[in-house]
Amino acid sequence: MKYRHRAAALAATAVVLAGAGPAAAASSSPAPSPTPSVAIPDGLYGTTDPTYDGVWRQSLALLAQESVGVTPADEAVAWLAGQQCANGAFAAFRADAGKPCDAKLMVDTNSTAAATQALAALGGHDAEVRKAVTWLKSVQNADGGWGYTPGGASDANSTSVVTGALAQGGVTVPNLRKDGKSPYDALHALALPCDGKDAGAFAYQPGKKGELAANADATAAAVLGLLSEPLTGSRPDDSASPAACTAFDASKEPEKGAANGAGWLAEAMAKDGHLTSALPGAEDQPDYGNTADAIVALSSSGLNDQAEAPLRWLEANFAQWAKDSGPAAYAQLVFVANAARGADARDFGGQDLVELLNATGPAPKAVEKKDQSTASAEKAEKKDDDGLNAAYTIGGGLLVGAAIGLALMVRGRKRRQS
Length: 418
Fold this sequence. Notes:
mainly alpha
């Protein structure tokens, strides 16, 4: 796979045919347009054409800011909330939010789910969240999942981002069923079997003949979906090891499916330390967006050791990609920093992701800064730990040296006595 056409899929069946999900596991914005087709509204993050991804990138930006203690500008939150239609759905972008939504407006599950996650996290938007949740539930497919557009065939990305939104909105996901099928059942149907190639991975959608092809974007999304995690993922303290792929009951043990997907992602990144984008007629390129999503998926599954090398690679190489891609990319990186062990959004590869993200839009209302006494205590604790480790090392060396000396002395005495 390895396309990441976030909202470019709005218009595009081509994206679906290419196997690149339009949503779920966060992505950067489409390539910048020389001249945006619409004016950039006040409060919107980023300077590229918002027609295909305005709501998506705004949602990710606000979600990331909230996760690191930033209170977004009022106009930024108001712009997102104002994009909602009366029925609760969101389109990718509405140039005139004062105009009622009509049948010609293309609303979608991905924009709606991302906005739901952001507004739920920010708080104070219960009415908007309830309306969005109601709409999302109303367009659930008979297989338990969701497609990009209402009534469209279910895909792993859309199903996963909606699942995260519903969980954020207070829905008990396993109990949400359509014709007896839950969202987990829809994801299970896209899991590659454990006895074949790419065991544990997930497909974006079945092929024309029902075949399933492993898709890294879809797999990273499905891991979060089966864990009912939002786009931000989570940061478990424990460190698990990849488990062998095992068959799982979607209704009772979705976490096993998540573990299968995480194990496949770990193996996919083991060689190069990152995922690769393979496009027809072009040289393979590092896939920054999917690598970021995969790190969040691994970390949320407790595979912190396996996320270590991709994390260090991303820290060393993200700068130009994120600068070119804009706020959604910076938001992805904040999610990585929040989820991955040993990562810091304020010092990610030597750069402050929070400042970089904030600079792409209106100045935040407030920025929570780490208390200096706390920061000093943490530094002192680390210094003490380092000193203690050094002491143990030196002390251990002295003990070893003493033991060797004693052995030689005893050996010399025995020789003199013989």
